């Protein structure tokens, strides 16, 4: 049987106009059955649908009770219907409701997405991997990203639940930012092995693909809550390195140390502190990239030269007023 | 060729008397060549041999230079010779020196050993495993300890480098102590799953078998230094659980969480804090067993009712004077 | 004169139905006088009465102004009246108001009470005391609990203002829980004196009988605020031990040390850290019992396998989903 | 029987000259029996005697073995003998050795003593007490210091084991210093009750009379180790306040709060932080007096304008060089 | 042209009565234009005016749109108008609006002012300066306070944004409080140089004149936010000391050290901890004065013997109930 | 008079051979007069001389007593003499001793010097300054380094007393390292002003020229001890910026903020934390350069793959063993 494929290109809720028909995937955030004034008519359905551009009220009249058997809150359904206008507000009249298989869902329709060009980022990733000279490390990364499921997760996952780059594509964006900063820092450090550093930067947060869930909302998985992305990432890499023939044990330990220590301090949940030159650089690069992301976001909201108070950094930042240093 | 097998039972250095011949394994701590007064005679060899009962000076006269080609410091060799007495002190005259394969060495001859009956402890371990009802957990532990190398390491490793039970058999002794305490604590906690708790207690420190080296001295391995026993242990178990057919993912995560959180706080290098009833119990039992070991050791040295200052607990302990509460 | 004795058995507010007459003690939380529309008629009284099962609006019409002279907020009064129904809600019509002497009040009518069987707990306490072998310790506890006022306070007091077992009978429940855990822990510690441990567990929080007030609401007394239950408890025991003839000074110091150190760390307001085996065990048992109480309460509210966020432990707990380890 | 009373005035060891006879109390630090070269002569005794001015070697020839039956190390004995000179060094020839009753010992002969005039300090104490207007507080202090044993202990005890005023009379000196500072601070604080403050300053460290031992060396008693001077002091005062007829409970709590909170922070072993104006003042005065004592001592050793490093304050202090601000 | 000078004495908003005319400076907190029901009439102006005694609604009918061109929120304007009454509330009818030059504004009309007599405080300052014996220090302070702008700022600035003495004149009041306490503390410290201490107390917070802005609301200036009053104060004094001929370098360093270290600890933003006797005293005096201010303020609000919870000190304070110690 | 100019090129002590004559500057570490066996001959002089390559014993026979009048320990003198050999050790026979003016001393002869090419570093400094576009900042730095005394101090001072680059030229080396890292980091941060960053990197530690003394030993000056290099640096720059005509106040505050916040946290003695993008970058670059210096130094001493324990970073670093990742 042919898997359902809603129409393309998608009409986003923010663009939907009265009169337009739609047939697409939406998160059903809330729904309930409401009694008709005439009790003999039973109930109609009211629901709130959402995609990443906004929310919309929806109604189903005749088959409301039937649809209510099928629907589940916080879940994606294929919805067919027509936009109408009621008291000046666009509203959707639901004609059909269909459960969908998670694999068929384009999750990015429901969450914010990195402002950067994602295919350019992906290309940058592949180039970085191809520049690795150490055969074992290059094989590890090549194999890993040749696995469709891992690659898809890696280029889709957010970088965090809320702190920084909390959007689809955030993990990829952040990892490449860390890589760039790390290689810059290594420019003055001849002792640093750039292959190790490249692997460390690309892989340091790979555990986030299983730590975070990011379908209709960004949150922690049970695995994420109980193990954390450091442990998850090491476990994952440990298995993949075993698959690379002849992967040296010393190299495996070094790469796992980069993951284990990248938060830098025990109280930030690193079970080890950086004890290799590359681990020190990676930690600095990671913190720098995350801090800068937060600050830059705050700068965009600055007023009278000052950003709003940034809770995670416990301060406001000053950007100055036009021309004040001239 | 027949592998060498030095005589049994071993004569310990502390018991060696002038006139006795020996043929056994010793650590060669230090050696050097000394010139004869008559330069034409070349050099003789002086060495310090050690077993876990003590050290002894040794000399080789004629073939000293030849032996020096073979010896390596901090390494175990098979030594043949005869005890002599020189100025009232027993000394060994070396007749032969032979390199040995690590596998042939009974390492426990060189390090302190738990005062408890090791085979009784091992039996206790097996009984605890056999009491597990959950088939997956029982299979995991049975398979694990059926692996000769892991079993041998587990029953041999010390529990720590210096803090507590820093002797051969310490890991086994400590793990069983934690198990007993944990099950006692669970007596008042019906919510606690005793199978999980048994697995957690037995496995929480299993990473120490690779974190520590304990041949001629107890120290950290490079893997131990860079990853720590929590990460090492999780990696090891992750692979073994994968081997158990049908091992539920939820169960794997729970067991790994027990390992990940058993130190209880981030600053004690746990990447997660206990978030399950069993993890809380395990953490309490682990700390209690370790604290009690240290205190009990100190009590044995108490004078005038007070132990010496215990650096790791930052205090002295009071044991009272005979009959003072009667 | 005969002390007033309201009817028995009590009708709880949650069970009161229109038409029933009542004559019992209630906390008067709030009251005020309201003007009649016809000013010549003066004012009527509205009040909120409460017992531990709920609150109820009450009115007094003719004698409202007179009652208002007598009433005081947050205080218990004997109230006579009749339940009526007004707009579908049950309301009390007050006929008489009488001040009461605190001694006549059954305070437990106004606060939550332990879910456990309180007389069984009390029996458990007495048995524990009777098992003590050291004659001085046994005499101390026997005498102490033979004092009616102390016994009543001990079996009534809550264990804390809000953290754990914050209900009538909580102190007794918590102390016995600590005792059970402490004796279990001591099973592996032959050095521990079980009599001392029994005394420590039963008495460690005895200062709470004066630290907390628990009549119409649980709060701190001025003495509790300024001295805390550790100092109050030691003072109290110091006087009682002096009354036991021949009580050894060394034993007095040990028992006071158990009280002084049971919080374990200075920052938790212990002026001393545990320096005796029994003090270490007591501290572990106290923390374990309190933590487990909080966690178990949270588990009862778990949803999708996770408890709500527990502020005092700064995390959520995982209980897993049905059958996930099978 | 007449108690022994060694000659007065005492000859201090530092002043003892060859030829002088002595008959006085000394600490016997160490002693041993040495064989004569001629074995038939048995052993002679060598001992180290000490008073607060210094140490001296002593010998007993004929009756050495007999004296050795009587002597005990770290204990005070009455020693009779004669100073001689041997190889240019003064040495004592012991003629008689007599055990003494602690009560007969003037302990101050063996420990450093405050440089201040102790009877003037004692007078200052009595005047401060006599200035108290509140009858209960004045009675408390008058009665307390009328108790010979307490008074003697109070005017003799050191203020600390090593931190500040670690000498005979230190407690009195420190308490009066705190009193002076506290009253000065209160000059700007009309809300402060000067009677309470006087009591608080005089009594805040009274527990030190039982926390510290200060006969032949300053150290902690077992009670001091297990309870600390705050708990000991409150216990002591609690009993004495009970003896003052009609002593108001509110006043007792306030005074005990002053003791309980005078260290200011939990981590400095105060079970409560200051919650009364007088408690705040007392805490500031206590810290100020202790800090200033340490700094002033260090200033006396300053070189090139700087004191040595003061470990307890983690810094050096600058006193400047002559005339550098002119 | 004659600078505008509104009438004197000022009529405070809290005293303004319907019918009175006013012509004075007010902060315009908010204003907006509201459409008349008859659109052809355009808009009228509504505004909220404020002085330090309160706020008042104001309206401008005919010339509202014209005034709106001139007004700016959070800014002081000269307003002429007449009080009217509307629905029982006094309201102002605006007749004229005039921008003003900051120099002409008496800022104290808009912020709370110290309850103390400010000219008495100023006199006290001058006397303290005149008592300084060291010619360099006296010249420094005399010159500094002879500068009109600095003197005006110093006697006007608040002591803090919210913690203590957060009102006009607060800096002066606090500095003199610190001086008094510091000199009292120095009474027992002969080593302390009273001239240095006087300078330190008067100048320790002088940077606040540029750290804080205190025209229509107390807040931080950009300079205050980026440098803090310690750095600002040292910079300012450094320049002024350079102007005093022959000012000894050692003296300059000492005074700057007093400023740099007066917060006492690094985490309280002192780049140095006190390393001179005078710096230690100054730090104690500063903390004591600030703490006492907060506590005293809380005492004024005490109920049932207890102050409200003081967030900055993390506790409540007990003042006791009438006569409870008698 | 012609200032003395010892011979060039200098003969270093480590190269001095018996028979060679020398005439150069040396630190006299210690000296004393020793009596001749024949008392009638008086005393001879023994001294320890030092330059940065080592120490040497020296003697003066006939004029020893006369030289002792002139010498001072820890001070540089011009010494003339001849190397001799005594019992196989080279020793100096002193012929003449001459006090010298500090200005004439080439201090670098007595302390370790950066291994880098100092004139290349100086050139790099000038180029960095010349690349600044903002006219005020460029003028500030140009003027500053045109001042001979400041330039000399800046290119000579060490970067720290012991932590990192504790040698002559260290400040310059460190500042340029920070500059390079900072500009690299800024490559990804378009918001960062590179001129500000250049100024911040070059000037952040300029206070060290007065904080540290570095003539015969590296230590703190009194100014350094009492104010620290942050305050000293801001003071210095504040005066120099005032000299640049029209220097914008906003720019001055920003530059001073860079200095004030570069340690990043209050507990590291920064009175402000970074609140500008440039300040954040500068802080990261400063820590990174200092950490890397320490680690790199440790790497040079690594054995078996591990560096010695680095106390300031509380760990050892792993460099791996040859070829272990291949």
UniProtKB/TrEMBL annotation, chains A, B, C, D, E, F:
Any one GO MF annotation of this record: hydrolase activity
Keywords annotated in UniProt: Hydrolase
Stretches assigned to the HD domain: 171-291
Q: Name one GO biological process term.
A: rRNA 3'-end processing
Q: Kindly list any coiled-coil regions of this protein.
A: none
Q: Which CDD domains match?
A: HDc (cd00077)
Q: Which Pfam families match?
A: HD (PF01966), tRNA_anti-codon (PF01336)
Q: Which PANTHER family match?
A: 3'-5' EXORIBONUCLEASE YHAM (PTHR37294:SF1)
| Name by which UniProt lists this protein | HD domain-containing protein
State the organism named in the record. Heliobacterium mobile (Heliobacillus mobilis)
User: Which lineage do the record's taxonomy fields give for this organism?
Assistant: Bacteria, Bacillati, Bacillota, Clostridia, Eubacteriales
């Amino acid at each position: 049987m042919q898997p359902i494929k809603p129409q393309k290109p998608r009409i986003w809720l923010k663009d939907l106009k009265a009169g337009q028909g739609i047939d697409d995937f939406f998160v059903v955030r809330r729904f309930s059955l409401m009694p008709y004034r005439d009790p003999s008519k039973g109930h109609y359905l009211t629901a709130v649908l959402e995609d990443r551009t906004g929310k919309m009220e929806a109604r189903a009249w005749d088959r409301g009770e039937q649809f209510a058997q099928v629907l589940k809150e916080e879940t994606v359904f294929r919805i067919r219907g027509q936009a109408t206008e009621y008291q000046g507000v666009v509203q959707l009249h639901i004609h059909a409701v269909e459960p969908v298989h998670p694999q068929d869902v384009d999750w990015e329709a429901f969450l914010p997405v990195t402002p950067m060009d994602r295919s350019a980022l992906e290309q940058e990733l592949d180039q970085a991997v191809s520049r690795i000279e150490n055969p074992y490390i290059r094989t590890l990364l090549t194999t890993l990203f040749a696995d469709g499921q891992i690659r898809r997760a890696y280029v889709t996952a957010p970088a965090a639940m809320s702190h920084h780059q909390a959007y689809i594509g955030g993990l990829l964006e952040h990892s490449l930012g860390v890589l760039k900063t790390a290689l810059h820092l290594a420019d003055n450090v001849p002792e640093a092995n750039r292959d190790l550093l490249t692997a460390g930067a690309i892989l340091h947060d790979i555990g986030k693909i299983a730590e975070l869930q990011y379908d209709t909302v960004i949150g922690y998985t049970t695995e994420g809550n109980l193990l954390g992305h450091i442990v998850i990432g090491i476990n994952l890499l440990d298995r993949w390195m075993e698959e690379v023939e002849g992967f040296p044990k010393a190299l495996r330990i070094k790469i796992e140390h980069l993951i284990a220590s990248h938060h830098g301090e025990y109280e930030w949940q690193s079970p080890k502190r950086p004890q290799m030159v590359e681990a020190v650089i990676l930690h600095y690069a990671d913190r720098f990239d995350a801090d800068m992301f937060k600050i830059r976001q705050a700068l965009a909201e600055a007023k009278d030269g000052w950003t709003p108070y940034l809770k995670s950094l416990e301060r406001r930042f000053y950007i100055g007023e036009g021309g004040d240093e001239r």
